[in-house]
Amino acid sequence: MNRRPPALLFTLVALASCLLGYWWLVPQQDKPATLPWLQQWDAEVLRPLAEERLSLGRLHERLPDAELWLQPGPRLLLRGALEGWRVEAEPALSEAQRASLAAASGIGPDEPERPQSAQMLAQLADRPVEALNLQPQGSVSATLLSASLGAPRLRLQLQEGEAWVYPQQGLTAHIQDERVRLLRAVPKRLLRH
């Protein structure tokens, strides 16, 4: 008596072979690359800034080589670098503090910006950071940003490119030609409208 294997068993073996061959031959997609420093900065810098808990001194701890610069206006900026990104942070100053700074520095509207002393930075260490700009020094793909922070909650069309808005981080990214041009972080209350 000839016994043939049941058709169901034969079908299962054939299906398992096909799936194993597909898994073996098709390259596995790796997790997309991310900006390695951004997750740490999200926790230590961006979210505290969004919640208005980031001081100039605390930011300087993250950027120990950063320097304070005074521009006409007057406008005070902490400038540093982070893994291929230029960082500029502006401390919150009252109009009286700005007027005092302008008078003390003697900087006029047409004069070049000037570096400030480490002593001034120490005096302003407790001032909250009002805004933070991160500008890539090379080409950074927008997919790196979305892989690092997830999809933006809102996308706005700009005259050139678009703005990706991450309100929980108080972050807006300027994207042009699928490249990150600028990240700007502010307290999230400014992104609520």
Summarize the structure.
The chain has 193 residues and is α+β, with helices and mostly antiparallel strands. It contains six helices and nine strands, in the order αααβββαβαβαββββ.
Describe the 3D structure.
The chain is α+β, with helices and mostly antiparallel strands. 34% of the residues lie in helices and 27% in strands. It has a 9-stranded antiparallel sheet with strand order 4-1-2-3-5-9-8-7-6. The radius of gyration is 26 Å and the shape is elongated.
Strand fraction: 25-35%
Assign a percent range to the helix content. 25-40%
Shape: elongated
Total count of strands: 9
Order of helices and strands: HHHEEEHEHEHEEEE
* Strand line-up across the major sheet: 4-1-2-3-5-9-8-7-6
Distance between the termini: 82 Å
- Major beta sheet summary: 9 strands, antiparallel
Count, helices: 6
**Structural class by helix and strand composition:** alpha+beta
Q: Using only CA atoms, what is the Rg? A: 26 Å
Number of domains: 1
Low-confidence stretches: none
Average residue pLDDT = 86
